[in-house]
User: Fold these one by one.
Assistant:
Number 1:
Amino acid sequence: MSNILEISGIEKKYPGVVANRDVSLIVREGTIHAIIGENGAGKSTLMKTLYGLIRPDAGTIKVFGDEVTLKSPQDAIALGIGMVHQHFKLADNATVLENVILGSEPSRFGFIIKYDEAREKLLEIAKTYQLDIDPDERLSNLGVGERQRVEIAKVLYRGAKILILDEPTAVLVPQEVSELFANLRELVKKGLTVLFISHKLDEVLSISDEITVMRQGTTVASLTPAGTTKKMLAELMVGGELPKPIAGHQVVSEKSFLSLKGASYTRHDGREILHNLDLEVHGGEIVGLAGVEGNGQSELIELVMGLLQANVGSVEVLGLDASNTLTRDIRNAGVAYIPQDRQRDGVLMFAPLWENRILGHQFASPMAKGIWVDKHAAIEDSNRVVEEFDVRTPGVNVLVSALSGGNQQKFIVGRELSGDPKLIIAAQPTRGVDVGAQAIIWDHLMRARSRGAAILLISADLEELFSLSDRLAVIYSGSIVSILDPAKTTPEDLGLAMTGANN
Amino acid sequence: MSTDTKTPSSLKSRAKSLASSPTRIAILIAGVLIILSFVEKVTGSTDISSPGTSGATLRFAIPLLMAGLGGLWAERAGVINIGLEGMMIVGTWTGAWFGFKHGPLVGFIAAAVFGLLSGLFHAILTVKIGIDQAVSGLAINLIAAGGARYLSGIFFPPVGGDRTVSPPVASFPTFTLPGVSPFLEKIDGKNIFFISNVAGMLNGFTKEMSLVTLLFLFMVPLTSWILWRSKFGLRMRFSGENPMAAESLGINVYRIRYVAVSVSGMLASLGGAYLALVASSVYREGQTAGRGFIGLATVIFGNWKPGGVFAGSMLFGFTDALRVRENKSVMALILVAGIVAAFLAIYFAFKKKWKPAIYAFVVAALALLLNKTVEVIPQEFVTVFPNFATLIVLTFLAQRLTPPAAAGAPYRRGSE
């Protein structure tokens, strides 16, 4: 097999940061090549360089043996390099076909789109690579897995020979992941090459033919999955030993800190989102809420936080009736909330860290002094959070927007765990953070459990659910359909329960 | 549970069939027309379906249509254009001045050029510099209103105008559709139930029609065709839905927005010129009277679709036309609305949808009560009706409206 892609000595500097330095990578034709590394290890920069979104300061890129300069995505596309973005770049208010052909529409007189021709070509591609898509379906009707297939079809439609997939499994449930992997194997079988970026080590070991590890902006190792273990990969990524989560002692209290009984919630458009939902979380335990996104998790959280009111049933939070209590009082009673969409609900992007530290604690000591907020206490405590949670930042006066996503998340978790909350609602607490940060966050959650806090963990990451949870509650179509013991459940069983296969 | 998961798709398909089935709409329109004919027969007021009313409706609707299409072009590309009103003022002024100097045709061309420039100005401010779209639009409205007043004071008095009014402009030639219009007039005269009423309305649309009117009406299918058939249209829609997606596929979102917003300005300005050159024959200060904003409302009313914008501007134009015609016809119209609402109430009751049935019933009862007790409807009520109608549409259809997802959001090239 020949080398389809050869990269050597790539360097990219930004003011004050070196994003890539001395990056070398060799990808052989017809293989699945995984690139792993922590957040901020330079994976994204490298991929953007390959896709022509970023121009490197130094180094060479060879495609099919010829040295090339990539000035824009068009150059990359012309060379047969296609990118499947992590955050889908699709428009809901358009059809699959329109999303696919955008930018490379076959046309008459360069103006009128030949839709029939385009549809035929897309169906041909779908058939060749066994991608299950309907050209005329509207995007708004599609689920995550289907959207990803549209993204892949988009790249194939442009005749890509090398596909770059940026953390493609981050948003998928196990069944969808295996479907994706089947699709990827099909692509490779037909002679295409796949570059697969991830930090899920299990997946990397199971799907890839070769693995390249990146750390601190450079490539540190290239290996094959045979004879490689997760531990080896993790240590290569972090550059040392991983911090180990302490199991700690566990005392589950009799009292339930959170209790939903027959809770139902109907949205204003008449759709019942939650139906007769029962859930209990006791002090000293972590209950993992597993489910495919959009099965009522967000609404459940908002019921607990007093942001929504249940139509039927009761929601009791630390002895308070959440349907009848202000969110402020719920929080003051000792409820911490790590929101799933950190940039929308968790922080003020254009405010400094110390101001963000105050959010949600603005009425209680030590952040508040009478009717005033205490700036000095906030700065001091922000420094503590930065220290304890290893938030990489030049200081607490910088804007949150200047931090990487993983560091924002560490700061939010640190803020929420301040003041020893009794009940912690942790929604996707480690989404998009690297293994090092994940270990820190897990460690703190376990410590909170040890001191008797009740934790409701909502996560799409099965590994997280299995590692942390004492019990697994599976939510499907707005109801808890089963309660599982993580020690006696396999990921496949859980995946089936999550997709409602048991009903 | 299974019913739960099915709800959204069935809801969607229902909304789709309701909105997109042309036969249904045709049946609905025919039904309303039959009721209208009936009411006219009973009350003896034939003004609503008279050629005069329909002609006036079209005359009032065209400026709104052009402003609405202007709003549509901008928003489909992702830029909200609050400056439509100011761009219309640009059109009224330049249309009148150049029309006065060199004839109405040159007036229109000048309005198109200056409108294009005003749109380009909005594009530079919002797309290139990144100023908030509402602020930029507001600025254009203020600049246009102030600028028009200032220039009027300088240019108009020396040539026989006034500080606020231009000298009269030669009117644009009109034509009557040969064969069709006289034929319709004959049928209208025969007083056959329903058929004559419809003929009367159609006659109003075809009689003494300005070529400009026809050309502007043609902008509706043209815009549709561009949006859904052409390469530029597809790219324009994606610029408004997800500019990041468009850019990742090598589309120059900035350029598309420049073009679309410039066209937006041109359309709005032409709508303004129509006010000065076709609907009247003079520039008058305050002539646009908020029509740019109503145009924006028709965009929402029409769910960002050219046909919807057309329907919206006809509705607003119709109420505008009623304002200048007999008050008696307003009463007749209320009766029509009452009967339509009553039918709707029965329809919903049959479908066991009690909430809409009750609403419709209340509207019907109110309308009939109004018809029985009130002699003359205050003019203000008629004027405010379209705004009221938009409010109702927004309240009931808000769930089904599909505005361009990225309209109004600032967009920087290369952002994630």
Number 2:
Amino acid sequence: MNVAVRPHLVDGTRSVRLPSSRQGSRSGIVAEGAPFLAVEGVSLGFGGTVALDSVDLSVGEGEIHAVIGPNGAGKSSLINAISGLYAPDSGTIRIGDDRFSRVPTRRLARLGVARTFQNLALFKGLTVLDTVTAGLVDRQSAGLAAQILGLPHARREAREHQERAEAVIALLDLAAYRDRLAGTLPYGVQKRVELARALVARPRLLLLDEPMAGMTATEKQRMSGDIRAARDSTGATIVLIEHDVGVVMSLSDRVTVLDHGRRIASGTPAEIQADPAVIAAYLGLAFDETVA
Amino acid sequence: MATTSAPLAKAPPRPSARGIGVALLLVIAYGIVPLIGTSYLYEAILTPFLALSLAALGLNLLTGYAGQLSLGSSAFMAVGAYAAFNLSLRLPFLPLPVTIVLAGLVAAFAGLVAGLPALRLRGFYLAVSTLAVQFFVAWLLNRVGWLSNDSPSGIISAPPLVVAGLSFEDARGRYLFSLTVVALLTVLAWRLVTSPTGRNFVAVRDNETAARVIGVKVARTKLLAFALSSFVVGVAGVLWAFAYLRTVEPAGFNLDRSFQILFIVIIGGLGTLRGAFLGAGLIVVLPLLLSRFGAAVLGDGFDSGTLEMCQRIALGILIVAFLIREPAGLSALLDRAARRLRRRS
């Protein structure tokens, strides 16, 4: 399996390598105790349509938590609510020690939250290196004048940020595209660039909205490896939306199933696969499709 | 391959080639042109070319890099020119460079205020709000006599260009003065667009939501783009009035001028610094070529009215052609030509 060995993400260096098998994620890295992300009773409607209906979601620190469900189940709405792009009508969202009725998007990076988007949200006029470096914008402290005049501390900061970006670029095997404009790259590569932009800041909570949509089986496999490697090395809590049930079951520690804006089940992959409500709403159909 | 977006810093295969090119241009501009130029060349071509290039450079920071459309460029030129005039009139002890920097800061402040709607409006709606700025500034300059020192016609002559006892009053001096100002600001603009702040500009332009999510302060970035852009455009206004026209009058800064600067940016290439120079070169040279060509073909029938009409038609065709065939402008054409040459060699 070509994703079996991934470089380790310790302080952005490649010095440590850890094997990370497909079963690795089940081996109990999940921390006990208070969840890092807690969505409590969040409802969200768009002029009569209910996108989320009193949804609860609890994700432990360092957990890879998949959110699945049929189209229109409210998965993306949930991610958008957690990242503050949508304002819930009711309910609260707790990230770490902070509790919000609406998550302030402008403070996301400060809160240690990074995300990717279902339909790529890259800066098409920036090179891959600049795009990934831009993921560190929140750590930028040098002022405008210092940047323009090239004062020592601004140059040092720029160099450090570039080094961190280069490390993530190497980690996700993007070195070949380093100086290409993000908008000119193949779809699967753009997806990895977006992941790199999110990872470079070493977020504590990573929200991935269909990171493998439209990918080939091989690409999905390596993306799974990348996501797991990211969690194993940074300890990030990861919430991801994914349609491929096979990928979800092997990658996730826990799974939450949404249907028509409601949570119909939450548990380990094994529990979910055995849940009659889930099979009725979603899995039966999806499994048939996967098998066929 | 035609990309509709402009690169922030498209790393060329041989960056040194670009450095050599710029150095060569500066040697020609400072070393050779002043030896062989005529006052016609300075006054009718080079000085207006430099002032328009600078204005386009300023607008490009805002529109090309930060993606905020503005139709008020000539209002900011006017603010810069009038600020410089009033500063030199009322604070005559200030050295000219200080006056110009202060005038740029006044224009930057005007740009900051004009940029406030950008926090709520986008694209076409923003353009209309900057149009309002254009009309407001024209109205203000006509209405408040104090700004033009109560001159009955509203037209005032520009103060002499003297820096540290050195006079830049003749045609060549005004050219060299403009060249120096433009060269300095171009270097600063280049530093800006390759800095993290310039990267934020492009991030806001290309995807505002993603920019906000990764922590770009979107509102601050937009206002900064308006202020910095207006600073440069304001200084261009000072050059336009002090070095080129030698007079300061509201009519020199009308809506036509705003459009002209926008067209320079579009034709030259959005989001590239050299695009401003390429576009301005074309805009300045085009009328001269047309009038030569027209006079040769039509003889006496080609009067100034016909010329102006032909200019507008030619410009219109050019803009439509560029928007359809090469949205990245002359700059991208040049890139492609260079690549083809390199491949052949």
